[in-house]
């Protein structure tokens, strides 16, 4: 099969179908006001950093923020509880520690890029060439603050499940590497546009970025999918390209090959007290850890620990209350900051998330993610979930197969959540047919069956 695609000669009608949308991205230079002060999101420029660097960021979060460090669903750092006085101080401390924070367009690669022997191609070098091209463009491209590009070389912890405006992922066909260009979504939901040879990747992305910039600073890839699709003439049916194998949860031990294990540690519901983090990092350093990489799924990857010590490091992380095993039920719950941390929140998301982990293990077999959202925005998981618990005027709403903004299938009174979860857990445990997953069981029972279970007295 030959993969080849080229843009047609006609001008892109990029402005057609554009719906102007607003979206801000809190950074050190533009922190966002939340329920507990200002919030800054930090995207380190380099994928890897030393343990001492993360300790320095933790110290800065303690002295300038509320003493909690967060890792987002996309693998960025977040510090809350800042004030207009402490934001510049935080900037200074991070600069003093020699940590460069990326600005502008988010160009993301998988956390183990460049290390993983199962990668199809080197995403880091392609991403670097794209960064150079974007930085060199004159006049500077003014793009939507939340616009993102994923360059995915494949491998164990690929970014297939992470949403992006523009995504490229490597694939090998007849011994040759191509990059599948897709727009607006995840590996499975994005619209496939073309299969490109590597030399064509940066020009193609720049072409799309220039068109987005020409539309205006709120333009997102979803606004130009139709125009881009008709412009590129694919010489093969892109639907025939096999989907990327879904990445496992980051939590647990991964094998990079050549006696190089890496330990994925997930923060429980995305947060950790900085003192606990520093204590953990110091202990990991003693065990031989040399490098940290942030990972989607609110996780950090620990590198450098020898195979005969990696089990001890895993037990240590669990002892600190972190997610260090693939079977940890908390791996399958996505919760946002919630009440006390976000001004929009109307429920204590972390307590509800812990209640789900304690009360409804039958739901958490890995086949679905239970999403707990403090409001309809759904920050922790913007896409649809099999089950989403969100705030309702009195108590909670349970959305089945939808995002947090969808109309709830059932309502649960404030004091009935534990009972409702127990009923749901019992329903799945008892009605699962041999070998069936929680997701397919819930699908079979349907919204009516789920509603009946959670609303029984
Ligand atoms: S989903 Fe709502 S409550 Fe939760 S962090 Fe986002 S804005 Fe705040």
Which features would summarize this protein structure in a list?
457 residues, Sulfite Reductase Hemoprotein, domain 1, Sulfite Reductase Hemoprotein, domain 2, 3 domains, five-stranded antiparallel sheet, 10 helices, globular, disordered N terminus
Structure description:
By secondary structure, the chain is α+β, with helices and mostly antiparallel strands. It has helices at residues 51-64, 86-96, 123-136, 198-215, 225-231, 274-286, 307-319, 349-359, 417-431, 438-455; strands spanning 5-7, 32-34, 37-42, 48-49, 68-71, 77-82, 106-108, 148-152, 164-173, 176-185, 191-196, 232-234, 252-255, 261-266, 271-273, 291-295, 299-303, 333-335, 370-373, 385-392, 395-402, 410-412. The strands form five sheets. The chain has a five-stranded antiparallel β-sheet with strand order 2-3-6-5-15. A five-stranded antiparallel β-sheet has the order 4-16-17-14-13. Strand 5 and strand 6 form a beta hairpin. It is globular. The N and C termini lie far apart (59 Å). The relative contact order is 0.11. The protein binds iron/sulfur cluster.
In brief, what are we looking at here?
The protein is 29% helix and 24% strand. The protein has 457 residues and is of the alpha+beta class.
What CATH architecture label of the largest domain applies? 2-Layer Sandwich
Radius of gyration (Å): 22 Å
State which percent range the strand residues make up.
15-25%
CATH class of the largest domain: Alpha Beta
Beginning-to-end CA distance, first to last residue: 59 Å
Are any ligands bound, and if so which?
iron/sulfur cluster
Quick one: biggest sheet? Answer: 5 strands, antiparallel
Which percent bin holds the helix content? 25-40%
């Amino acid at each position: 099969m030959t993969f080849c695609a080229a843009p047609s000669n006609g001008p892109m009608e990029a402005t057609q179908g554009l719906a102007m949308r607003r979206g801000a991205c809190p950074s050190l230079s533009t922190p966002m006001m939340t329920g507990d002060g200002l919030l800054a999101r930090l995207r380190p420029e380099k994928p890897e950093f030393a343990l001492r660097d993360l300790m320095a960021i933790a110290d800065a979060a303690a002295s300038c923020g509320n003493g909690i460090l967060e890792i987002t669903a996309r693998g960025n750092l977040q510090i809350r509880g800042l004030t207009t006085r402490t934001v510049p101080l935080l900037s200074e401390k991070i600069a003093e520690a020699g940590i460069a924070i990326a600005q502008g367009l988010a160009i993301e690669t998988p956390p183990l890029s460049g290390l993983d022997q199962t990668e199809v191609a080197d995403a880091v070098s392609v991403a670097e060439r794209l960064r150079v091209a974007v930085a060199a463009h004159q006049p500077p491209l003014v793009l939507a603050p939340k616009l993102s590009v994923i360059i995915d070389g494949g491998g164990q912890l690929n970014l297939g499940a992470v949403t992006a405006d523009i995504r490229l992922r490597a694939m090998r066909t007849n011994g040759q590497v191509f990059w599948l260009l897709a727009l607006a979504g995840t590996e499975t939901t994005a619209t496939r546009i073309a299969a490109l040879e590597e030399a064509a990747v940066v020009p193609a992305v720049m072409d799309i970025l220039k068109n987005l910039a020409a539309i205006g600073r709120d333009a997102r890839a979803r606004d130009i999918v139709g125009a881009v699709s008709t412009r590129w003439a694919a010489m093969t049916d892109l639907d025939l390209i096999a989907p990327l194998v879904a990445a496992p949860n980051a939590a647990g031990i991964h094998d990079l090959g050549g006696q190089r294990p890496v330990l994925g540690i997930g923060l429980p519901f995305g947060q950790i007290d900085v003192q606990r983090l520093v204590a953990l990092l110091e202990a990991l350093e003693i065990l031989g850890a040399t490098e940290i990489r942030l990972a989607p799924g609110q996780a950090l990857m620990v590198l450098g620990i020898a195979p005969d010590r990696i089990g001890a490091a895993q037990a240590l992380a669990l002892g600190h209350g972190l997610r260090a095993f693939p079977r940890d039920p908390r791996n399958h719950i996505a919760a946002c900051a919630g009440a006390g941390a976000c001004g929009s929140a109307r429920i204590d998301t972390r307590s509800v998330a812990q209640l789900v982990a304690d009360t409804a293990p039958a739901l958490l077999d890995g086949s679905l993610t239970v999403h707990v959202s403090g409001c309809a925005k759904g920050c922790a998981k913007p896409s649809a979930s099999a089950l989403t618990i969100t705030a309702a005027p009195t108590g909670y709403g349970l959305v089945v197969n939808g995002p947090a903004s969808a109309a709830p299938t059932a309502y649960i009174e404030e004091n009935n959540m534990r009972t409702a979860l127990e009923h749901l857990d019992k329903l799945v445990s008892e009605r699962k047919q041999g070998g069936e997953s929680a997701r397919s069981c819930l699908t079979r029972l349907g919204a009516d069956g789920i509603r009946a279970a959670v609303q029984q007295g």
